[in-house]
Amino acid sequence: MAYSFMKKIKNKIGMILIIVLSAAFFFPSRTCALEPKITDILVTNDVENVLLYARLANGFKPEMELAVLAGIPTVFTIWVEVYEQRPWLWDKKIKKNEIRRTIKYDNLKKTFSVLTNNAEPIIFTDLESAQKAMSDFNGIIAVPMSSLVKGRNYYMMVKIKMDKVRLPLHMEYVFPFVSFWDFETSWYRQNFTY
Predict the structure, then answer these.
(1) What is the pLDDT of residues 100-158, one digit of tens each?
(2) d(C-alpha 98, C-alpha 118), whole Å
(3) CA 129 to CA 28: how far, in whole Å?
(4) How would you label 48-82 residue by residue, b for 16+ Cβ within 10 Å and e otherwise?
(5) Is the dihedral angle over the CA atoms 96, 58, 139, 188 positive or is it negative?
């Protein structure tokens, strides 16, 4: 009797596990679908420099929007590395850039400021425009043309990281949602020839 009862329980547990795993496979969670990634990568040039155009997709989560509206500054850092491809030697790193972009909400003026490195901030009146400015990396100078040799192959590696939020007096323990939005994209590679 006890053996039969245990066998029924095992069968029911096994069936529940199969259903749960099937549901997880066929209906993946929203967080998997909304992973931040770099899209629309374009490498071009003007007279003096090689320029990068890229966009961060799924960079803002709802918790981040609430934190920005609460006045917590949010920082994205983009790394751009340019390499020369060499068939017989390891690839040569030509240049490395780090660009920091910060969004901050001024509750008194009801405006959002987006600051890139130490340049003058750009002011927006709505969150959607400020988020677009944070996510679009347009015309970033990757490397001067004078550093490249005509006819050689190069590639650019691009990565974006959301800097970890540090609140005063260790308030991140009081507001635990700020620790959930730390992210870092994979490295993305874009080949180009000069």
Answers:
(1) 999 999 989 999 999 998 889 999 999 999 999 999 999 999 999 999 999 999 999 99
(2) 12
(3) 30
(4) ebbbbebbbeebbbeebbebbeeebebbbebbbbb
(5) positive
Nearest-CA neighbor of 184 among 150, 158, 166? 158
Q: Which domain covers residue 4, as residue numbers? A: 1-33
Number of separate domains in the chain: 2
Question: Tokens for 126?
Answer: 């709505």
Question: Is 55 found in the same domain as 19?
Answer: no
H or E stretch including 21? Answer: helix 2-26
pTM over 0.85: no
CA 142 to chain centre: 18
